[in-house]
Write a structure and sequence with these properties.
globular; five-stranded antiparallel β-sheet; 8 strands; binds 7-chloranyl-6-[(3S)-pyrrolidin-3-yl]oxy-2H-isoquinolin-1-one
Length: about 300
């Protein structure tokens, strides 16, 4: 399916896909795209809405400026091809990536309602039944990436969760290219407010580190504000990182949220990573128990 797989089953697979029209691969170039408007910026790139001229498809194009030698850029482009195989309704679709000058451009499915950080900052705290839908979509997306591609997101936060007018919720900006992660880390300060205690302390990153970020994200959406520090005072970046490592995990304000939501967030924010559940364990618990029905998740 990804072109480079020359094995017999790869060819058979390609024929099957062509037969069923599953695999329609655009060969994207800069001149095929018409720039329409700026959408956002984040972790090393700016995103704009573009129109693919011949197919009249609206797309989101992320431009990443890489100050690296051509061979590093080629490797990043090669690693981004993995995105063609990341097919889940909880992950924004990938149309292709190409090099233009010293930049790498990635074209993705356009999500016309936008990212959750902009939505809650405009509309206020997210209603709990929507937080439940977001929870399921994010956990399913993370679980898909890890179980099928051993990909850990590394940057779960409201601005990387997107919504469209069909009511679909999808995640984006996950760490698919190791080389890209290194290149961005070299040029951009990567301290995210959603970083787990173990990651702040330099421990190895695991899929459970993403679950910590899910917990902080859900609190922020439900409360309508970033949950650190509890009293809302202003902390510098360093004070915030020290707070996350040394202080108990943040808690939802008592009595304002259903107990099952409070419990779920507490599970995500267990500070000891070995005791914190994985996305898969959380999904099994949700779907395995009555827990799912009559709670914030249904
Ligand atoms: O519509 C989109 N489709 C795919 C991706 C994408 C990324 C966007 O912003 C980045 C920058 C901040 N986090 C995500 C934005 Cl604002 C929109 C999209």
């Amino acid at each position: 399916k990804n072109g480079t797989d020359d094995s017999k089953d790869g060819l058979a697979q390609r024929l099957t896909d062509l037969e069923f029209g599953l695999e329609f691969r655009l060969d994207l170039k800069a001149e095929d795209l018409k720039h329409l408007k700026e959408l956002g910026a984040g972790n090393g790139g700016t995103v704009s809405q573009v129109m693919h001229i011949t197919t009249k498809t609206l797309m989101a194009k992320k431009i990443i400026h890489i100050d690296a030698n051509p061979s590093v850029r080629k490797q990043i482009l090669r690693e981004l091809q993995i995105l063609h195989d990341c097919n889940s309704k909880y992950i924004v679709s990938f149309y292709g990536a190409f090099m233009s000058d010293a930049d790498i451009s990635m074209c993705m499915e356009y999500m016309d309602v936008g990212s959750l950080d902009n939505i809650y900052k405009k509309k206020g705290p997210v209603p709990l039944e929507i937080v439940g839908k977001i929870t399921l979509a994010v956990l399913e997306g993370l679980n898909y990436l890890y179980e099928n591609h051993r990909i850990i997101h590394r940057d779960v936060k409201p601005s990387n969760i997107l919504v469209n007018s069909k009511g679909q919720i999808k995640i984006c900006d996950f760490g698919v290219s190791g080389q890209l992660i290194n290149s961005i880390a070299d040029t951009f300060v990567g301290t995210s407010n959603y970083m787990s205690p173990e990651r702040i302390q330099g421990a190895s990153y695991s899929v459970r580190s993403d679950v910590w970020s899910v917990g902080i994200t859900l609190m922020e959406l439900a409360m309508g504000r970033f949950p650190f520090p509890p009293d809302g005072s202003q902390l510098t970046v360093l004070e915030l990182l020290q707070h996350i490592v040394n202080e108990p995990a943040p808690r939802l304000p008592t009595g304002e949220f259903p107990e099952d939501f409070d419990d779920f967030v507490q599970q995500c924010l267990i500070k000891v990573v070995s005791e914190r559940p994985s996305p898969n364990e959380l999904l099994v618990r949700i779907f395995g128990e009555i827990f799912f029905y009559g709670t914030f998740l249904n």
